[in-house]
Structure formats: structure tokens, C-alpha cells
Amino acid sequence: MEIEEKIDKVMQSMLGEFPELVRNLFQDTLGLEIEEIDSEKWSIVPRLSMKQEHSMNMGLSNDDWSSLLAMSFSAEMFNLIPGVDGDIELARSGLGEVLNGMGGVLAGNSTIIDAFQELTQAPPMYYANEVLYPKTSSIQGVLVCQGETIDFGWACRSTISPMMRRMLERNKQ
Q: Which of 7, 52, 76, 123 is the most exposed place for a label (fewest CB within 10 A)?
């Protein structure tokens, strides 16, 4: 199976459950009420596009695969998190925990493990500007919390070039 086909197959398999998993993690981790998922606002895209002013990313990878969870949001999101009382660092930490939780869910998912093996998480990183993401099949969608939108996505790609992968596969034969 070609690399792109493998990634597309995993993305198709995860698309049905991914939005609700993200929604549940936001609610459970931050105590926020997230509106019901609009499935029309979640799809597989050729590249993540997170255009709001604040972004958080977290990598998951191994020797063969590189994966990225990403979210973007407006500054108002910092004020919606209960208990942070204007402490932006604490709010960022809470949002990072959503990424950590989702990373754990993906790393333990049998579909992900079967396709990509074990993926190790990196710490979440915060960015205060638009981030450019690699071109690869990705799940992207929108959550809504008290009128504020949160863009959320997951991308995965091979860390080995297609040409190198073909050479490695020939050497195995």
C-alpha cells in the first residue's frame, strides 16, 4: 500500500470519532461546555490551515512517522477557561493538556498503532502567529465554545521519503 493511501485510510477511519474525542477532552480537561459537533465542519484536508492568532501544536512521532496535533483560537479563549483568573500561562498550560490528552488517545488507538506503531509525544508548544503546516492528509474541524471557535486538526506523514522507502522495501526482499 502506498504511503498516501495508508495515511488516507487511517484519516478516513478516524474522521468519524476524532471530533467527539476532541470535544470530550476539552470538556473533561478544561470544564468548558463545547457545543454539539457539526460533522459538516470536520473533514479530511490536504494540509492543516490554522488561521487564528494563537496556536498550540504537539508532535507525536517515531522513526518512520511524524504526526502533529494543532489548534488555533482567539485571545478570548484564555478568558473562557474556568479558574485561570486572567493567568495566560495557566490558560496555555490547560490548552496544552488538551493536546496531551488527545495525543495519549491517538497513541493508544488500535487503528493508529496498527498503521504507524507506537508514537511518542513531544511537549505542546504555543505560537502567537499563524503557523505553516506540512502538506499531508489531515483531519481538521471546528469546535465552538461560548461563541468562540477553536480550529483543531491532526496531520500525519512519513518521515522517510517515498524513494528511500522503496529502496528499503527492495532490500527486505
A: 123
Query: Cα–Cα distances in Å, from 80 out to 31, 38, 91, 166?
Result: 10, 21, 9, 49
Q: Residue 63: what are its φ and ψ, rounded to 5°?
A: -65, -25
Strands (E), 48-124: 54-61, 65-73, 120-121
The pLDDT profile of the chain, 173 residues, written as one tens digit per residue, is 588 888 999 999 999 999 999 999 999 999 999 999 999 999 999 999 998 999 999 999 999 999 999 999 999 999 999 999 989 999 999 999 999 999 999 999 999 999 999 999 999 999 987 778 988 999 999 999 999 999 999 999 988 766 666 777 788 77
Which of 117, 116, 121 shows the shortest CA–CA distance to 157?
Answer: 116
Q: How many CA atoms lie within 13 A of 6 on its CB side?
A: 15
Q: pTM value?
A: 0.89
Q: Give the Å distances, CA to CA, from 64 to 102, 116, 119.
A: 20, 8, 10
